[in-house]
Amino acid sequence: MFYTRGTISLYTALDDRAEKMATSQKLTEHYLTCIICSDVFSNPCTLVCNHTFCRKCIVNYTKTRPEAISAKSLLCPFCSKMTKVSNPERPVEEWADDVKPIFLIQGLLDSFGPGSKDTTCCSYCKEEGETTPASVWCYVCDDALCGRCVRIHNRIPSARHHDVTDLSGEVKVKRRRMVMCKEHKDESVKLLCKDCGKAVCYACCTIYHRQCVSVVSLESEMQAMKAALTLATGNLSQRKEKIHKEIETKKSKLEDETFRLKEMESHINSETAKAIEQIKLKERRLLDEVKEMSDKYIGQMKADIMSDEMSVQMYQQQTELIDQALQSECDMDVYEMYQGCEAGDVEAVGDADLKERGRIASVTFRQDTDKLSKALDNLQLGEIEVLYESVLDLKATPVLQDTIDVKVAGDTSTTWPFGVTVVMVGGTDTVVVTDYNNKSVKSFYTSNNQPGHSKLLLDTPPYGITKLTHDQVAFTVPGTEQIVTVKVKPDLELLTTITTSKAYWGITSLSPSTLAACSRSPPCVDILDMTGNVLRSISPRHKGNTILQYPDFLSTTRTGKILVSDLAT
After folding, report:
1. Quick check: 125 and 109 in contact, CB under 8 A?
2. What span, in angstroms and rounded, lies between the C-alpha atoms of 463 and 493?
3. CATH code of the domain containing 529
4. Closest C-alpha to 163, from 188, 196, 140
5. Other CB atoms closer than 10 Å to residue 47's CB: what's the count?
6. Considering the entire predicted model, what is its pTM?
7. pLDDT tens string 550-567
8. How far apart are the C-alpha atoms of 25 and 185, rounded to whole Å?
9. Average pLDDT in the 294-306 region?
10. Contact 90, 81 (CB under 8 A)
11. How many domains does the chain have?
12. What pLDDT, on the 0 to 100 scale, is given for residue 386?
């Protein structure tokens, strides 16, 4: 084959161009590509962390991050560093306008980026010192070619299929970002293997995908992929809008809840102020009573002192009169004084037998610390109720979480766990059960990832049980007419045994110092204190008939109401 000098020059130029193109490709991929849009930088800006992005990309990313908007800064998606903007009062879209790219990035863009190529003259002729007008642009070679050079370009087997475009008229050349195969460095990725889901070059397709059925060009799938991306964008926009509405709803709820919190705090403060005012009123009454009694007692003592002082003066005067009579030379004076003493004229006005009855002996203040402590325990300023979302799903299918076998070593009979409650001890849930048939109360817990239990034996079967405090329970022993309190450690420790006037079965706690228990004979619910005294007995009637017939178990609602389970049919 005969080649002209121009052809030889074109081949040589193509080889040089291939090497330069590879260098340009590497620079573009590693240094001139925005990691947000994966395209060559458009109006780049470099942040304080030295990471560079398209201005539009970094602004759009910053707009999605509330913390960056609040900080009036551009947020780097790569390292999350903030770059303060020079004029935060401007719209967010203009925040990156004053941020320039670093010198190196700008220099690379000027040399290898879009617009760096001359499209007016043929690149190959220019290297030969000629200025031949270019007629086409080769996107693969990234060069402008004249009519003669493009014909030679098309004769070369490796270049004849390159993507070229006509430069006539007002066609604007836009630099394409080509992706080269990692294994075949000189081959660009142009095919898509649908079977393997990989984008490959022609060489890879020939070597590795010969058995694959569906291998198509990327360009043929571009419209479908763009349509799918457009649909995905629509879906994302819908989701974004939905989440945006949820955010607005949550913000509204946040404002409402903040307002409600202040209202609740105000109500609690108001109730506390009322309770304090009642206490202060009782304080004033006590102080007034103490002052009244003390003033009366002090006045009484002052009167006694004055009376005694008058008696002393009288005795002194009578003594002086007696001395005068004794010194008198007249026998009649002595006789008259003697007669006066015999008649009892010399008596103390303040003698004890003349003092009035009902006198105050002393004034003291006695404080019943236990009674005051119980009163403070029973003081109810209010109750906090919390409703959790998605805690109770009425449509959900029940799932068995755990099973506790209440039969333990030493049990001689079938277990009858009539009463059960749960207390929290040291962060661990402890289940406490009354076993009627084995005359015992048992606790079950997990410690150090190992199951444990304890057993408290009784002389008489226990029945109902209730939680008193975070680590105390009370249960009934109807056979001996008793209520027993136990401390849960989580092992059980007997605290007190309360003797009652009736055999109680069900039991529930109304407060740390008040219980409700039900009796079957007579059928009623009694309110008891912790000593077993009946504060009130309830036996409701309806149309002349007693509602309760065989009360068995009790429970207290959060609002203080008592639920009664009755065995009567």
Report:
1. no
2. 18
3. 2.130.10.10
4. 140
5. 20
6. 0.38
7. 999 999 887 778 999 998
8. 10
9. 90
10. no
11. 2
12. 66
